[in-house]
Write a structure and sequence with these properties.
- The structure is a homodimer.
- The first copy, chain A, has two domains: about 80 residues, Arc Repressor Mutant, subunit A (Orthogonal Bundle), CATH 1.10.10.10; about 110 residues, 3-Layer(aba) Sandwich (Rossmann fold).
- Helices cover about 45% and strands about 20% of the residues of chain A.
- Chain A is built from nine helices and eleven strands.
- In chain A, the strands form three sheets. Chain A has a seven-stranded mixed beta sheet with strand order 7-8-6-5-9-10-11.
- The interface between A and B is large, with 68 and 68 residues.
- Chain A binds a DNA duplex through helix 3.
Chain lengths: ~220, ~220
DNA sequence: TAGATTGTTAATCGATTAACAATC
DNA sequence: TAGATTGTTAATCGATTAACAATC
């Protein structure tokens, strides 16, 4: 994995760090709901299955948030991480491919808690166009560029078959999308300035089955 | 991410390498279908969006497969990688949580091409139990241990809500599951010998939105 | 042969972790 | 104060990449 960096003030932080911060925020919210007011890096790290140093190191890219000898105020840290990740403002995204997986993501309720909202879904299949999924009408793929541009969407989620993925990604990029989450089992080659995250469920399971076969020896 | 290693003969190969090998195999199959007989690391790497050295290095953990000055025979390499990953034999898995995402995975046709097959699906929701999804009947979650053990399943996919994930994972592990793909937005703490891969769609998109906000400056 | 391309060693780069001073 | 825990520097570890000999 070529690790991509992101400029933060003068610092460059890897996307791995950002993902971890996002998961810290996720768990902090749970703690907050459970009425926990103060937490140490040690106990939170245990909850997250990482080391406490990694937690503190990750935070250190953005400033000191804790109190030595005490730990972290859950509310304060939650607020800081929310601000830092920009998770307080709603972020819309466009989705291409309203098949099984696409529909599941459209209806994925957890996204709401992350202030992430599906704004438009597209498909080229006549049978899917016009279909209403969770209140959202699937639009014709040929209108994608116009809609994405008009709505000013910056994030695209690709759930189309592998052979259509590259073209869809290019069209998204041309319409102003600068970050893509690709579920299609294929690599996408696109302008450097567009960030692509790949999730290939088949590859994930195949890697696990290699692990299983190894263990069988 | 703590990078997990897997023993291969005397060599230890990271799971990242295995995932890449899986994606190499995926693209080699496409080339094979397109009638390509020989390919160089350079052109394949370009297709994959990685460097040619990385491709050759990854292969080198398992032996020399190419011909110097020429490249790789597509059929031969496909066969070798298939054998190496054990991708020729069908690998079954169990799925917990037959909601939207779970159903999408049950019906995910690409898995077949990877010789990966859903063998049993479970849910604790009375409305879902007995439901037939793509020919598979959703079973009662309380029968999970027995069925998993009887069928000898080793891979589990978790699509239940976050708060149920930990318990489901533990029950899977107790029934003999040794590799888990977790889609629930929470960490799973489990026996060391069980490998857990996490895919948190919310975290993925939140990280992308951080990237988008950074670019806006 | 000359050109191309592999396989591998050594160098580099980045991420994780150990160690510890600072301080609540 | 003594104990706990943070924040950070330095050391370690691992992964990627550069360089190049081997050879088709």
């Amino acid at each position: 994995m070529t690790s991509r960096r992101v400029l933060t003030g003068s610092k460059q932080v890897s996307l791995e760090v950002i993902k971890r911060l996002s998961s810290y925020l996720r768990d902090l919210k749970t703690l907050e709901n459970n009425g926990v007011t103060v937490v140490s890096s040690g106990s939170l790290a245990e909850l997250l299955g990482i080391s406490s140093v990694q937690f503190r190191k990750d935070l250190s890219y953005f400033g000191p948030f804790g109190k030595k000898g005490v730990g972290y105020n859950v509310c304060t840290l939650t607020a800081k991480l929310t601000e830092l990740l920009g998770a307080g403002d709603c972020m819309g995204f466009a989705l291409a491919g309203a098949g099984k997986l696409g529909s599941a993501i459209i209806q994925y309720s957890s996204l709401q808690r992350f202030n992430i909202k599906i704004m438009a879904a597209f498909d080229s299949d006549r049978r899917k166009i016009g279909k209403k999924i969770d209140g959202l009408v699937v639009a014709d793929a040929k209108d994608m560029e116009t809609t994405v541009r008009t709505m000013g969407l910056k994030i695209g989620v690709i759930c189309v078959p592998a052979k259509a993925a590259q073209q869809v990604a290019e069209r998204m990029a041309s319409a102003g999308i600068i970050a893509v989450l690709n579920f299609a089992p294929t690599e996408i080659k696109i302008l450097k300035k567009v960030h692509v995250s790949n999730v290939d469920i088949c590859v994930e399971i195949e890697a696990l089955s290699y692990f299983v076969r190894q263990s069988a020896t």
